[in-house]
Amino acid sequence: MSATAKFRENVEGLRRIAWDVAAKVVDPEVPVLTIEDLGVLRDVRIADDGVVEVDITPTYTGCPAMGVFTMDIETELAKAGFGEVRINTVLSPAWTTDWLSEEAREKLRDYGIAPPAGKASRRALFGDDEVTCPRCGSKNTEKVSEFGSTACKALWRCCDCAEPFDYFKCI
């Protein structure tokens, strides 16, 4: 194997390690989800100068978690022995709930938050026809407020078990 090939292999190995470290950073608003679960983690590279570059996409413009994500990614990579880290906020393409992994949807349900009911589309802007209660599984639910505990969630109530719950909006 040539020296160049060995160098590339080493860089790719470091990139995978850096990805795995960054991928474990949790969402401060929904601590059962990682930035990888959310689809917020877009790319990790090792630049020619050895800097770890991490691309993240906000779930929506002005998301307050982005500052926490940045700080936590830098902290976790430093703990793992990486030196300088550069965090890039990537706005295009815009994040969509379609980027949530199936595991993320299951984690949301288990945590008591109803995952997005459908695919992101223009129709999603007009509300969801059917949101399933994450507690009892009933489809007999009603929207209480367009805004829940955070701007990306709405407050719903189950008409069968009478429990309120957050619904992660489809965007």
UniProtKB/TrEMBL annotation:
Residues of the MIP18 family-like domain: 24-80
Cited Gene3D superfamilies: Fe-S cluster assembly (FSCA)
Every PaaD zinc beta ribbon domain range: 121-169
Annotated protein name in UniProt: Phenylacetate-CoA oxygenase subunit PaaJ
Primary gene name: paaJ
